[in-house]
């Protein structure tokens, strides 16, 4: 599915998910999302790692509600635990099968996100590797001088601020040289189409989810 349609579906299910207190629906959302990710050929190892990382958070929510909820402790504990997994898998349907560039460009094309926001976010993600390299250089240069930076030392953050300003200036020059102007649209050599049936599918799934929660009120 197109990332823009998945984004709308994620919001359409994710927002009601906050207010609907149903363990069954949380499990259904998680199961459908995992099946979709497997259909998109996301590696099972990646999904397993994602669930293992979220497991302590879900367990912590379960314990806190199980012992400290004001009413219906068992039900509330399972709701909050399964809701975390549902949110995680719901977000993964957008981020795992698609690249950051594909997501941002589709949001700009089909949902009219600001071009400035899109290219700013894309630049930030592309600079992650550069930031890691600069962080290592700061540490190594300090070690050469016989110093070791700690997280609470102001000198470390001063160096980081200086490097960030330099990177910001380089980024601004690069975007200007590529013809980027704030407030103006950008042309691209290829554009993903968003079929009407995907909008219909998003609407049907969202309405069905809310209707099941309201009409049947599953546990």
TrEMBL record:
It is a multi-pass membrane protein. The keyword Magnesium does not apply. The chain crosses the membrane at residues 7-39, 45-64, 76-96, 116-135, 156-176, 196-216. GO terms for cellular component: plasma membrane. InterPro entries: ABC/ECF_trnsptr_transmembrane (IPR003339). Keywords: Membrane, Transmembrane, Transmembrane helix. It is found in: Membrane. Its main location: membrane. This is ABC transporter, permease protein. It comes from Ligilactobacillus ruminis (strain ATCC 27782 / RF3).
